[in-house]
Amino acid sequence: MTGKPRKSTGGRDARTLAERIASSPKTTPSRVYVQGMFREDDFKNAGFQSFGTGDFRILFGDYETIASWLSRRRKRIRNVHAEITARYSALPMLDLRKVKARVEPGAIIRDGASIGRDCVIMMGAVINVGAEVGRGTMIDMNAVLGARAIVGRNCHIGAGTVLAGVLEPPGRVPVVVEDRVLIGANVVVLEGVRIGRGSVVGAGAIVVSDVPAGVVVAGAPARIIKNAVDVAPEKITIVGKLRRR
After folding, report:
1. pTM for the structure as a whole
2. Is the pLDDT of residue 240 over 50?
3. Which domains does the chain have, with CATH numbers?
4. Cα 158 from Cα 146, distance rounded (Å)
5. Which of 187, 194, 123 is nearest to 157 (CA)?
6. How wide is the angle at C-alpha 147 spanned by C-alphas 109 and 84, nearest 5°?
7. Is 178 left (phi over 0), alpha (psi -120 to 50) or beta?
8. CB-CB contact of 48 with 69 (8 Å)
9. Measuring CA to CA, how many Å separate 228 from each of 25, 26, 109, 163, 202?
10. Residue range 86-104, pLDDT digits in tens
């Protein structure tokens, strides 16, 4: 393995992402259940969404806006229950209606991430802004793809693995995982590392420098222990059936 990471041409530009985050309105997304005496014009141009009729409504929007609206009508409000999902958040979650992949409950994918067709994103996985996941790749339970991390096609990123993000400082190079890489559970891949096509990273490894194509690495720090062709195929096969939607 080489000690100096190669620059990647992929990923989203860190300064552009940072500017987007800095300039985005910081909101507190909330769902508020409210009972009271309402008029239909109470909800015109209110700055949030309202569902329901009569004296029971469900409100969706920024909590500060909703709280101000409620305060002005407090004498007509009988009961309120608020559920807040984030506080002063800069970016929403990715709109999953546009994703042609299997995303299981509890996965967290920020807007600005890219999810390829026929991917599988398992429960508890976190994919941050600017990260890219190639077609047919599985991100297993509780894996974390930091900002701008790049994963190629038909890979497996094991449960609890962390691909370090690089948003700050903006000049750092992102993690790049090339096509058909299998990474075991609880691996840490440091910023700037590139893992070559068809390589295998053993569970628990800490990868601090580039991994060439077609090898198996393990340990902390990770070192080459064999060639990938020497591993029994059933131990590193990507199962296409699991990618079906």
Report:
1. 0.86
2. yes
3. 29-84 (3.30.70.250), 96-243 (2.160.10.10)
4. 15
5. 187
6. 45
7. beta
8. yes
9. 48, 47, 31, 21, 11
10. 999 999 999 999 899 999 9
